[in-house]
Amino acid sequence: MNSLVKHNAILRAQFTTPDAFLIKSLLDLDTIDLILRELLTIEEMREAGSFFTGQKLATKAVSSLQKPITFSSVVLDPTCGAGNLLIECSRKLGVESTLSETLQLWGRVLWGFDIHLHFVEAAKLRLVIEALNRGVIQDCELDEACGLLSNIMVRDAMSIESDHLRTVTHVIMNPPFTIWPSPKNNYWKDGKVNAAGIVMDKILRNIPEECSFCAILPDVLRSGSRYNGFRDFVSNYTDSSVEIWGRFNRKTDVDVFLLYGKVHQGSKETQWHKSEYVSTCVSDFFDVRTGPLVSYREPKEGNKYPYIYPKNSPQWETLTKATEFRQFKGLVIEPPFIVIKRTSSPADKYRASATIINFKEPVAVENHMIVVKPKDGRISTCRALLNKLESQQVNDFLNERIRVRHLTIGVVKEIPFCKDK
Ligand SMILES: C[S@@+](CC[C@H](N)C(=O)[O-])C[C@H]1O[C@@H](n2cnc3c(N)ncnc32)[C@H](O)[C@@H]1O
Question: Cα of 13 to ligand 1 centre, how many Å?
């Protein structure tokens, strides 16, 4: 993190010897992520979860706040980094004729916390330069100017309590997506939890009723089966909406969504997924499970069975004869059934790449496959589902429901399917 000192020195220099070209890039919300990537190691960035919100996403997040930002607002970014979201919020505020008058007003509205001093410094310096860039008269020293932004400070977001946040009217945030241990007490999940869920939870428990919020969160919180508890918690505490965004930026391969609304207890259900109009789904006609054979763990002992894994399962084909065999003592599956590869991405042409297995003998299926076995034992039911899985409708359904790379049993069970259509 010390390499940020260099970056902050460049920011400071703009106060005495401004360079218009440099100022443009220092205030550019897309460039800061690239600059920091050059200064910090990828490990430092990952550890801090410091991937900064680009311009388009920042604009979308600020415009999703349900109340306008005015000089009577108090807008908190609890994990503010180098201040991208705060800068975007400041663009909703007017300026006075001088720097000091402007920052006095901005300083009351804009609150930011971060655990890294150099990020906090960068956020303040960039806001000072942003104000100058908007044409105010420079009437005070840099330290005085930064001092007017005293609500942007080094602070652990996990240490805040409701008393500190009594006057907060808006929260905007893009918390770290690293993995933290669960706070456990009165919590929706034990073990390891995505930090974004923990920070979101902390904020929702401590901001005042009716406070407007918008958070940029990893898609796993919206679609992962491990986060049902998080979703129930948010639904109970808020009136909120969800908007899928897609990949965070070109360099960061994580899909994100926006969660926005207001704190409101006893409120309406959050709609995490688009509603579906088909009334039956895969689990009405099929049993769905993960392949039982974990290849690195299972000894090659027991009877020899046909062996199915992703590489020997060509998509959309029906296999009637086994080409590979393996000894296995565990559970084998009686055909006919469908296997779906568990790993896929929204960038793939097909999300549910599937194959029908119609051998005469039971089969050992590896755990990177999802086994979908018709309850009526009929190959025609498998064919009907294979056709359906190849459709754009299923791609759209899965891309909307699960942006993370692993299909889950839950989401496959919920694929809309009606045998006669
Ligand atoms: C993904 S960045 C987002 C920064 C900024 N809000 C933006 O959108 O560009 C997350 C930030 O959270 C900070 N952070 C990590 N743990 C924190 C904690 N416990 N309290 C406050 N900030 C934290 C990191 O230092 C990092 O700057």
Answer: 25
Residue 88 in contact with ligand 1 by CB distance below 6 A: no
Q: Going by C-beta distance under 8 Å and a sequence separation of 6 or more, which residues neighbour residue 278?
A: 416, 417, 418
Angstrom distance (rounded) from CA 375 to CA 342 = 21
- Give the contacts of 308 (CB within 8 A, at least 6 positions apart): 291, 319, 339, 357, 363, 364, 365, 366, 369
354 CB-contact burial (10 Å; exposed 0-12 / middle 13-18 / buried 19+): buried
- Rounded to 10 degrees, the C-alpha dihedral 398/402/407/409 comes to -90
CATH 3.40.50.150 fits 4-263, yes or no: yes
Domain spans of the chain? 4-263, 282-413
CA distance linking residue 121 with residue 402, whole number of Å: 37
81 lines ligand 1 (CB under 6 A): yes
**How much is the average pLDDT of 250-264?**
89
378-388 pLDDT, tens digit each: 999 999 999 99
Q: Which of 173-182, 206-215, 313-322, 390-399 has the lowest mean pLDDT?
A: 390-399
CATH code 3.90.220.20 for 282-413? yes
Ligand 1 mean position, distance from CA 52 (Å): 9
